[in-house]
Structure formats: structure tokens, C-alpha cells
């Protein structure tokens, strides 16, 4: 990015909650530094679980991120209760505290106080809906500063409830696309450490990706010294039986 682009990008002005496009709410700095540290520490514990961080293959090529999951296993063929390539291990469960964070995220992101055009519900209606939000799968990605993620849709879930995404560590350029194509129109926004983004409704199946990580941009007190974690909470709508 040139200096001029940096000066005039949307984010240079605005670290307030905002609707990026209908259904996509960005709440900068939503996680406290303490919560960010907590999440970073969990990665170490989760990584020692039955499914160690690994780079799934997409069309035979390893992704540049390292991934582990909670609740369900993910690979390019979709979600499964057990991990074929890891001795059929079952992932660790989604902890209750993370479900609660997901509910709070949905409630706050879609609060009418932020002026989003979707879902056009009252505060009370949003609270009732958010109270039922029960994510049963979490994908946790670690990006080295050189890692990226190509444009894709999150569509392995049957449920169309929103995706809740938390970021910790270096800032990412996050590409908010459209539901039809991997190409334009899209908008690039910065997801910094502690940012929350929620995408649902008309944007639940938008294409999105991470074209770039901005190295050495994590806050000084962030326990992630290099690179970035992102975790996405989702409801699968699938039954394990
Ligand atoms: O790292 C991000 O912000 C996005 C991750 C993502 O799109 C995914 O895990 O499906
Ligand atoms: Fe995604």
C-alpha cells in the first residue's frame, strides 16, 4: 500500500462499528487485550489436542495457513465429525465460553444502534435471536506474515446463521466480496488485533479472502509476536449421528 492509499482508506478515518455492506458488520477493537491474550493462549492448548495445526490440501496444494478446528473437522471435502487423516480423531468440543462470546458478538454486531440495514430488528428481537446462536464448529487459522487465503465462500454449513470472526495479532487485509463472483465488486478492509467481523443475511455466502498480512502491526502488548490468528464461529446445522 502506498502512503496515500493508507491515508485515504476507509479505515484511516473510522474505527467505529460499521456496516461494510449489508449483513457485514465490523466492530474494531471488540476484544479487550486480555481476551486477545486468552485466545492466543488457547491456540497453544488446542494445538496440542487431537488435531494438530496443519495446512489442509486444496486441489493437492497445501494452504499457506495452519488450521485446527473445534467441534467438527474441516478439509476441502467439507465438515466431518472425525478427522480422516488424523486417526479418525474427534476434534475438541467448542467450549461454552466461546459460544457465549459468539452470542454476544451477534447481539452487538447487529444491534440497531450501529445503523446497519440488515437484519432490521429491534434491540429486543436481536437479543432473542442472538440468544439462540449456538456455534458448533470453530475454524482457527494461523497466518505467518507471508500467508494468505484465496477468495472463497463459507458454504460447508447447512445453517445460514451468521459467521462470527475474531482476529488476534498482525493486521490483515480482508477482502469483502459479493455472493456471486470471486472478482469485483469487493472492498478491502483492515482487520486489526481484537477486531470482530460478523457476516450474515445477504452476505452470509459472500466470497471473501485475505490477500495480505501486514507484518509487525500487532499491538506491542499482544502475545502473538508474529503473524495472525483468526477464528470463525459457525453453526453447521448438521447432526453428528
Ligand atoms: O482469516 C480471516 O479473516 C478469514 C478466514 C476465513 O475466511 C475462513 O476461515 O474461512
Ligand atoms: Fe471463510
UniProtKB/TrEMBL annotation:
Xref: Gene3D superfamilies: Alpha-ketoglutarate-dependent dioxygenase AlkB-like (2.60.120.590)
PROSITE patterns documented for this protein: FE2OG_OXY
GO cellular component: cytoplasm
Pfam families documented for this protein: 2OG-FeII_Oxy_2
Biological processes per GO annotation: oxidative RNA demethylation
Keyword Iron part of the UniProt annotation: yes
InterPro entries: Alkb, AlkB-like, AlkB-like_sf, Oxoglu/Fe-dep_dioxygenase_dom
Listed GO MF terms: broad specificity oxidative DNA demethylase activity; ferrous iron binding; oxidative RNA demethylase activity
Keywords: Dioxygenase, Iron, Metal-binding, Oxidoreductase
SUPFAM superfamilies: Clavaminate synthase-like
UniProt domain Fe2OG dioxygenase: residue ranges: 134-237
Cofactor binding, note field: Binds 1 Fe(2+) ion per subunit.
Record-listed Fe cation binding positions: 152, 154, 208
Requisite cofactors: Fe(2+)
Protein name: Alpha-ketoglutarate-dependent dioxygenase AlkB
Taxonomic lineage: Bacteria, Bacillati, Actinomycetota, Actinomycetes, Micrococcales
Amino acid at each position: 500500500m502506498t502512503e496515500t492509499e493508507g491515508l485515504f482508506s476507509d479505515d484511516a478515518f473510522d474505527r467505529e462499528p460499521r456496516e461494510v455492506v449489508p449483513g457485514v458488520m465490523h466492530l474494531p477493537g471488540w476484544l479487550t487485550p486480555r481476551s486477545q491474550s486468552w485466545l492466543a493462549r488457547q491456540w497453544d492448548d488446542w494445538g496440542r489436542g487431537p488435531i494438530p495445526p496443519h495446512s489442509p490440501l486444496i486441489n493437492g496444494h497445501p494452504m499457506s495457513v495452519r488450521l485446527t478446528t473445534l467441534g467438527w473437522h474441516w478439509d476441502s471435502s467439507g465438515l466431518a465429525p472425525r478427522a480422516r487423516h488424523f486417526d479418525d480423531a474427534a476434534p475438541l468440543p467448542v467450549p461454552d465460553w466461546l459460544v457465549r462470546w459468539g452470542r454476544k458478538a451477534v447481539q452487538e454486531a447487529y444491534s440497531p444502534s450501529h445503523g446497519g440495514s440488515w437484519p432490521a430488528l429491534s434491540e429486543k428481537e436481536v437479543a432473542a435471536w442472538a440468544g439462540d446462536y449456538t456455534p458448533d464448529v470453530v475454524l482457527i487459522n494461523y497466518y505467518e506474515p507471508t500467508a494468505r487465503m484465496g477468495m472463497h465462500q463459507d458454504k460447508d454449513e447447512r445453517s445460514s446463521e451468521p459467521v462470527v470472526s475474531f482476529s488476534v495479532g498482525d493486521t490483515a487485509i480482508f477482502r469483502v466480496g459479493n455472493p456471486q463472483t470471486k472478482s469485483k465488486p469487493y472492498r478491502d478492509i483492515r482487520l486489526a488485533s481484537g477486531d470482530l467481523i460478523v457476516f450474515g443475511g445477504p452476505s452470509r455466502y459472500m466470497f471473501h479472502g485475505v490477500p495480505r498480512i501486514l507484518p509487525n502491526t500487532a499491538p506491542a502488548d499482544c502475545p502473538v509476536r508474529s503473524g495472525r490468528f483468526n477464528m470463525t464461529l459457525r453453526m453447521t446445522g448438521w447432526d453428528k449421528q
